[in-house]
């Protein structure tokens, strides 16, 4: 069966990716910062589930992950871990360091992790790299303003993954840039429009049927094209 690797797999969308792929018989490598605290993930309790500790903001942990997974093929690599970053308050957005922290997790780490595991993807049958971005990174869709930290991190992420989609197409690797919808998770909050099951089912269908024509496009979980 194929293998999927998911970052930020202990809760929210990442946990649901792990749950659904396991239910379909896949092998799942679920990465999270603190496996000991990842009760919901461990409760999936499956011998096809491997849980590995990875803080994606730590280069040493990304290198250690690549070493651990040396020679193990990965069919679908999913960059899911993300943070909202600080929001505007009466004091503004806070110190620039908090912005840099969000850029590290949302923008730089997906690139770093992808580079570190590229040989694993090359040796997989499906050769797909998926990055969970957000419509908040769209310029065309930005009619409300605000959220400058989150928006800029996802806009930058889109630029990075667009380039990777072109660079890796030559090798037959499909890079997908997916918006999950506004989803009921800790990040999405209680007013969100859809549940994790609908979001992940939709994105898994896109991943399953993806062809080189889908690479480098900005697509929502329901297949809708999002303007950059
Ligand atoms: N929910 C939405 O409406 C929505 C909409 C658009 C895009 N997204 C994107 O979808 C992705 C998943 O979001 P979500 O809604 O599932 O959010 P969530 O419920 O807040 O979960 C975020 C996940 O990312 C992990 N994470 C954060 N920093 C990390 C780090 N340094 N290293 C490893 N893992 C880290 C968290 O782990 P810890 O538990 O250790 O913090 C958690 O597993 C994110 O990229 C988000 O930007 C979500």
Provide a descriptive summary of the structure in words.
This protein is an alpha/beta fold and 228 residues long. It has one domain: 3-Layer(aba) Sandwich (Rossmann fold), CATH 3.40.50. The chain is built from seven helices and seven strands, in the order βαβαβαβααβαβαβ. The protein has helices at 12-23, 39-42, 59-68, 96-116, 118-122, 148-169, 196-209, and strands at 3-6, 27-32, 49-53, 76-79, 128-132, 174-179, 218-220. A seven-stranded parallel beta sheet has the order 3-2-1-4-5-6-7, sandwiched between helices. NADP nicotinamide-adenine-dinucleotide phosphate (NAP) binds at residues 7-8, 10-14, 32-33, 55-57, 80-83, 105, 132, 134, 179-180, 182-183, 185-188, 192. NADP nicotinamide-adenine-dinucleotide phosphate is lined by residues 7-8, 10-14, 32-33, 55-57, 80-83, 105, 132, 134, 179-180, 182-183, 185-188, 192.
Give a brief rundown of this model:
The protein is of the alpha/beta class and 228 residues long. Helices cover 39% and strands 14% of the residues.
Which strand-content bin applies to the residues?
Answer: 5-15%
What fold name stands as the CATH topology?
Rossmann fold
Determine the number of helices (DSSP H or I, runs of at least 4 residues): 7
List how many beta strands DSSP finds.
7
Structural class determined from secondary elements: alpha/beta
The tally of domains stands at: 1
Average predicted confidence as pLDDT:
97
CATH superfamily: NAD(P)-binding Rossmann-like Domain
User: What ligand species are in this complex?
Assistant: NADP nicotinamide-adenine-dinucleotide phosphate
> Mind summarizing the main beta sheet?
7 strands, parallel
So what's the overall shape? globular
Radius of gyration, Cα only, in angstroms? Answer: 17 Å
CATH class: Alpha Beta
SSE string, helix = H, strand = E? EHEHEHEHHEHEHE
Fraction of helical residues: 25-40%
Q: What distance lies between the first and last C-alpha atoms, to the nearest angstrom?
A: 35 Å
């Amino acid at each position: 069966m194929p293998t999927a690797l998911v970052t930020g797999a202990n809760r929210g969308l990442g946990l649901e990716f792990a749950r659904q792929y396991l239910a379909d018989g896949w092998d799942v490598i679920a990465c999270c910062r603190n496996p000991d605290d990842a009760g919901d993930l461990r409760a999936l309790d499956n011998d096809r589930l491997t849980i590995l500790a990875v803080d994606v903001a730590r280069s040493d942990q990304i290198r250690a992950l690549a070493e651990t997974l040396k020679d193990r093929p990965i069919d679908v690599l999913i960059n899911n871990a993300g943070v909202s970053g600080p929001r505007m308050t009466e004091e503004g957005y806070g110190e620039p360091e908090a912005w840099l922290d969000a850029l590290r997790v949302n923008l730089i780490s997906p690139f770093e992790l992808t580079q570190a595991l590229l040989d694993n993807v090359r040796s997989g049958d499906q050769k797909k790299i998926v990055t969970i971005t957000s419509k908040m990174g769209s310029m065309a869709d930005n009619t409300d303003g605000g959220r400058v930290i989150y928006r800029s991190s996802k806009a930058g992420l889109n630029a990075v993954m667009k380039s990777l989609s072109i660079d890796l197409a030559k090798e037959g690797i499909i890079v997908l840039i997916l918006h999950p919808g506004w989803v009921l998770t800790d990040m999405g909050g209680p007013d969100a429009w859809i549940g994790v099951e609908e979001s992940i089912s939709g994105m898994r269908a896109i991943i399953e049927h993806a062809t080189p024509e889908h690479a480098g496009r900005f697509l929502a979980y329901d297949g809708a094209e999002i303007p950059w």
